[in-house]
Input
Amino acid sequence: MKNNFWEKLKKNGRPILALAPMAGFTDEPFRQICSAYGADVVYSEMVSATALYYQREKEDNETLRLLKWNEAREGKYVVQLFGSNPDHFAVATKIVTEKIKPHGIDINFGCPVGKVLKQGAGADLMRNLSQARAVIEATLANTSLPVSVKIRAKSSDVDAVAFLKNISDLKVAALMIHGRTLSQGFAGEPDYAIVNKVRPHFKGVILINGGINDRETAERALAESGADGLGLGRGALARPWLFAELKEGRDIVYGQTEIISLLYRHAKLMSELKGEGALVEWRKQACWCVQGLPSASRLRSRLVQVSSLNDVTNILQEYGLND
Ligand SMILES: Cc1cc2nc3c(=O)[nH]c(=O)nc-3n(C[C@H](O)[C@H](O)[C@H](O)COP(=O)(O)O)c2cc1C
Output
């Protein structure tokens, strides 16, 4: 394995801060925003290994376009693949390594969405130990980049310890563990202490994930888990500046002026990098971000209707935008 950036980040002696993969959200513009606030590692949205396999003859295909990134403006970039067929992972890994050239490749073992489970992928692959191992082996054999895995505390009768024991001889560089079980979905208390149980069975870097929304939960997650770092999910959607708070060790209060200016910066990046049509996706993140404002519900009802940067500018100017 060349360039194991995970180990280098660990040597910095402070918790590694990662933007967890989130389909529909962790695209290039949002990754750039989080990187600017101090995210050390940013994961792509999950992409299908099978789609990459079937589009392998097409130089410029839709899935590869989704993975586009900007080396100067993003932290360490990790592309996440989902699927269940080792042959598809072998080809997809090669394509991503050669054409996208990220810093690392991650495999999804946690997704609870029906159409992903139906393919034997995501959390379904976590509970299929022999197939999971074959997928990891195929990925490792086709890249020199560090390979990581993202799992849940438990999927059916397979818990994180059983999963990691099954691959303890493989050179997996890092693990992000969502401290909730598959049956918990995205709600309920995550088990941060699970890291203590998995540590003896995994040699790489460990990040804990789930319910980390502010400094208090971040400190608790680190204290209870002893993890090497944190994976921030919905906490970063609502407050991307959480990365700066954690890095600087202080609360950062964002009022209306700062939030409006951040929303505008994000909308501008969206239309520059993905075209104005992508503002439909921006609306979702904007709704997360305005949560705390006194005028949130009226602002939200207007933002969900925008279809151009001009619309965004006009609305945000009414709320004090002066960019
Ligand atoms: C909208 C959304 C999309 C997600 N997409 C992915 C994904 O593509 N890959 C993945 O491994 N996890 C995905 N997740 C799970 C998150 O990475 C994370 O594990 C989960 O949200 C728990 O962290 P949180 O409580 O901080 O949000 C997604 C979560 C959300 C809310």
The beta strands are 16-19, 41-43, 47-48, 76-82, 104-109, 147-155, 158-159, 174-181, 205-209, 229-232. Residues 256-274 form the longest helix (19 residues). The CA atoms of residues 127 and 158 lie 5 Å apart. Residues 20-25, 45-46, 80, 108, 110-111, 150, 178, 186, 209-212, 232-235 surround flavin mononucleotide (CB under 6 Å).
